[in-house]
Design a protein that fits this description.
single chain, 384 residues, alpha/beta, Rossmann fold, Dehydroquinate synthase-like, alpha domain, 2 domains, 6-stranded parallel β-sheet
Length: 384
């Protein structure tokens, strides 16, 4: 029997209006000059206006500062510029607010603030990242769960490939899950980010690593998503549905400390090469990948189907998987997530580069079933 370590340490404030607790929380953390890391779109939203009101709009540029240069699918230069802003303003903490991109950039910026000029491609050569500035993570989407994650996904400048920077020191000191900050998210992004959370839950549950705590969390995340995502998609102001999706996204990210799978190996290059939204990329690859896994490990999705409320208990393994996969396919179609990659700008000439990067991506190594490079090409062709 192998030894496995379990840890779920992140402190979380949850509920509509939870953002109001931020100033007091910063004081407790000893943060008096925070840098807000976000993107250029979010600073124009009501979510940012709510943050500014809580922090004191008149104090922006005096006691709190803003870096809004994060791109979708953040690149290394975003992180370096954010780190420079931390140093220039002599900040003593980070507030990362937005979707997965600002959250990942905010986490990683603390690395380069601690060690200016550090080569991020050599991240895994270091083990001691103690001394990072405190981080408060505030998601405005319900998808990546980056707020509770110990990693940051950044596209490196030299290789143009996504790197997963992983270290327990990268955890936020506080996470604020306030559904009022997500009501302005448009339906298509609500759907795509929700599909990201769903993929996290399904892949983490089915990967072969032993982590029963993550398994339970993943299945409850599945249940919440199937129940709440259609409601949030139809009515963005449904605070209960929005809140349940925030919780489910965080649960998915906690669960995938167990591991992920082939869907993410397929999705990461679609973002780095083709600029596709990560959640959308996951959604478009999920069903084909589930069929691939089920054909090689029958019955793998029975408990996912049970979590979705499907009558699969008395079915054979083949039937249980078929019913569950068909339900997932229909569920995604109802959210407008049933198109082909080619309908989102992916062309046949991208295929070789996509396959090469997918093969180098580590996620498929912990997939529910073994994956070859030929399998990756076949899966891309199926969804192209």
């Amino acid at each position: 029997m192998s030894l496995t370590a379990f840890s779920f340490p992140t402190r979380t404030l949850y509920g509509a209006g939870a953002l109001a607790e931020l100033p007091a929380a910063l004081v407790k953390l000893g943060v008096h000059r925070p840098l807000v890391v976000t993107d250029g779109g979010l600073v124009k939203t009501d979510a940012f206006a709510q943050l500014a009101a809580v922090m004191g709009a008149d104090n922006q540029g005096k006691t709190w500062f803003v870096f809004d240069g994060v791109h979708p699918n953040p690149v290394e230069e975003d992180v370096r510029q954010a780190a420079a802003a931390l140093r220039d303003h002599q900040c003593d903490g980070v507030i990362a607010i937005g979707g997965g991109s600002p959250l990942d950039a905010g986490k990683a910026a603390r690395l380069l603030a601690l060690r200016p000029g550090y080569d991020l491609s050599k991240f895994y050569e270091e083990s001691d990242w103690s001394g990072l500035l405190p981080l408060v993570a505030i998601p405005t989407t319900a998808g990546t769960g980056s707020e509770v994650g110990r990693s940051s996904v950044i596209t490196l400048d030299a290789t143009h490939r996504k790197a997963v920077l992983f270290n327990p020191e990268m955890l936020a000191k506080l996470v604020i899950l306030d559904p009022a900050l997500t009501v302005g998210l448009p339906p298509h992004l609500t759907a795509a980010t929700g599909a990201d959370a769903l993929t996290h839950c399904i892949e983490s549950f089915t990967c072969p690593s032993f982590h029963p705590m993550c398994d339970g969390i993943a299945l409850e995340g599945v249940r919440l998503i199937f129940e709440a995502l259609p409601k949030a998609y139809r009515d963005g102001k449904d605070l209960e549905a929005r809140g349940h999706m925030l919780v489910a996204a965080a649960m998915g990210a906690v669960a995938f400390q167990k591991d992920l799978g082939v869907v993410h190996s397929l999705a990461h290059p679609l973002s780095s090469i083709c600029g596709m939204h990560h959640g959308l990329a996951n959604a478009l690859c999920l069903v084909a990948s589930m069929r691939f896994c089920s054909a090689r490990r029958l019955g793998i999705y029975r408990r996912v189907g049970q979590a979705a409320g499907l009558e699969v208990v008395k079915l054979s393994d083949v039937e249980a998987d078929q019913v569950t996969i068909a339900f997932v396919e229909s569920f995604l179609a109802g959210l407008g997530l049933n198109k082909k990659l080619s309908q989102h700008g992916v062309r046949p000439e991208h295929l070789d580069a996509l396959v090469a990067q997918a093969w180098e991506d580590p996620c498929h190594r912990t997939n529910a079933v073994p994956v070859t490079i030929e399998d990756l090409r076949a899966l891309y062709l199926e969804v192209l």
